[in-house]
Amino acid sequence: MLAPRIRPRRIPGLARELRIVLAKTGNGVRPTILRRSITGRRSGQRRPSRCGFRILSGAFSFLERAMTDRPDCDRLTLGFVPLADCAPLIVAERKGFFREEGLAVRLSRESSWASLRDKLVCGILDGAHMLAPLPLAITLGLSGPKTPMVVGLSLNLNGNAVTVSRALAAEMAAADPEGAAAGSATAVAAVVAARRRAGAPPPVFAIVFPVSSHHDQLRYWLAAGGVDPQRDVRIVVVPPPQMVAHLSAGRVDGFCVGAPWGDVAVDQGVGVTATTGWRIWNNAPEKVFAVTHTWAEARPETHHAVLRALIRAAAWLDRPKHRAEAVAMLAAPEVLNAPAASIAASLVGRPGDTLIDGLPAQGPVYHRRAAGLPWRSHAAWFLAQLRRWGELPDGVDIAAAAAAVYRPDLYRAAAWDLGYPAPTTDAKQEGDHDTAWVLADPAGDIALGADRFCDGRAFDPADIDTYLAGLGVTAGPDATAATQRG
Asked: What is the domain range of residue 33?
């Protein structure tokens, strides 16, 4: 199509180069590989003139677009909510990992988790960046239409924070100085008691969605400090990008949200970090990549390709030298539309932050320490929290539900295909380690991070009843629903 128009005598070397372009494109060579092959200089080969090089570059761009529009190229729409943990999707699109896996992906920014959930269930979205417990709830009919879901990848660990207004922070410091300084919810308990004595309303906390790690972590932290989250405080739902405005306007006293919105509140001077998700549960799962079971069964090769692209993006993200570039990608108006400095606070760190392998110890982890594996023990913990607060019927088999939705086998297949190590076990006991540790695995030792809970408890997914029986604050018969359901 393009080759007959080329005149080799006027543009030395270009005809030969374009024949290589066309031949390789016809054989399915990916554009990025092609770019390296046509711009490299071999010994004894004449380099195209400047004019020829411009034409060659234009031809490459045309072919790249043509490949994207090929009928055999999988075209997908993937959804995300503007948070730092959507980074693997953004990086996979911007760095070309999706394209290199034969995928033409359009990313759709969603305004809320309810919108994203509904579009995924209805088939408007092919897959989505999703709250870690939400696919479990959708599968069980606890959030939206009952629809079997599949999670083949955990997108990140860490990233949440509990941020309170400056006024509540002052109350906490006055009522319980030691607790406030230590990031303990005992300071919230002291404020609750003082307000009750004065006849004042209880504190109001916001979360991003009823079924979320934010809700679970906030309730876990409050209960560990002696606060009953269903009786002593009010919990409401606010979309992540609106959190700072609600806190600034005094509509809420605090919130639990993922990066960067807690840092945005701090940087704007309207919020104070009370504690972080890392302090509540070291290296807790935050977001996952989810698809419907029907979609996964119908398009297994496409699903595998998506997981490969996202794993490659996650590995790219966890190289410290790439974090500044990732911050710039996320700060874009069409992605987070947030200040780069606030995004960098979690991805790069603030002055004085503890670093591990060059990255913030309490910041998001995308790939290292087997972060991508969707552990079934993580799924079981989320389901156990729902049962703790009276939101999961006793008849639900937690182990079976976790196994049906969380699919570490899919992650392993994609990771091993790329040459990355992955544990062969599907679950582990959570809460036993307050430092990094090594998992002895048949496939080889795997370095994992700390998994300590703020109350020092351990969670054994094989003995959930004993775990639940040992918890101090749980749902009672007179508990009221403090959160609007999603």
From this structure: 3-68
